[in-house]
Design goal:
The structure is a single chain. The protein has 194 residues and is α/β, with parallel strands linked by helices. Helices cover 35% and strands 22% of the residues. The protein has one domain: Rossmann fold (3-Layer(aba) Sandwich). A seven-stranded mixed beta sheet has the order 3-2-1-4-5-6-7, sandwiched between helices. Strand 4, helix 4 and strand 5 form a beta-alpha-beta unit. Helix 1 packs parallel to helix 6. The longest helix is centred in the last third of the chain and has 24 residues. The relative contact order is 0.16. Bound molecules: 5-O-phosphono-beta-D-ribofuranosylamine (GRF). 5-O-phosphono-beta-D-ribofuranosylamine binds next to helix 1, strand 5 and helix 6.
Length: 194
């Protein structure tokens, strides 16, 4: 079967992007990463993608008057690369609703919490503050409402005595790198639950 064409949107480090690129190198993986787009010109992830031979492009939100025109520019890049599935991987801009609607069912995100718990930012600190016994990460379809949308896969980790934000984040991130490629595989094969 033909591999599904995937575009990844990043804003920074890109470790989840790297996990997807590495997974997609396996001959039997059902998706290929055809484009990485960053809204931040010096995002560290861009260099890694280029090193692996994945085409990269910067669409700097600062060059656009509003969310709509920025999203239109993203859309144009994705379409030009014939992207079929979009993966958000640490992409830190809110996307205009028409863009989200256009990609509905074909755009997924990874979030560092067990959704619906701890939507938004600073999830690890908030989990610790709340005294959560377990924490984790979620891959879900993107809907206009932030960090909502059907869940594809979740991974749980324990919160251990003595954890701080950094130790908990590292434990979750390790799971993210396993979970995202597994979730993209399901989506690319049409085997997700939703
Ligand atoms: C990850 O924790 C991801 O869940 C969240 O932002 C972080 C991005 O990290 N959405 P990276 O850029 O993938 O390393």
């Amino acid at each position: 079967m033909a591999k599904r064409r995937v575009g990844i949107l990043i804003s920074g480090r890109g470790s989840n992007m790297a996990a997807l690129i590495e997974a997609a190198r396996a001959p039997d993986y059902p998706a290929e990463i055809v484009l990485v787009v960053s809204n931040v010109p010096d995002a560290a992830g861009l260099a890694f993608a280029a090193l692996r031979g994945v085409p990269t492009v910067v669409v700097n939100h600062k060059n656009f008057a509003n969310r709509e025109t920025f999203a239109d520019a993203l859309d144009a890049k994705l379409r030009a690369a014939k992207v079929e599935i979009v993966c958000l991987a640490g992409f830190m801009r809110l996307l205009a609703t028409p863009f989200v609607e256009r990609w509905r069912g074909r755009m997924i995100n990874i979030h560092p919490s067990l959704l619906p718990a701890f939507k938004g930012l600073n999830t690890h600190a908030r989990a610790l503050d709340a005294g959560a016994k377990t924490h984790g990460c979620t891959v879900h379809y993107v809907e206009p409402e932030l960090d909502s949308g059907p869940v594809i896969l979740q991974a749980e980790v324990p919160v251990l005595p003595g954890d701080d934000e950094a130790t908990l984040a590292a434990r979750v991130l390790k799971e993210e790198h396993r979970l995202y490629p597994a979730a993209l595989r399901l989506v690319a094969e049409g085997r997700d639950k939703s």
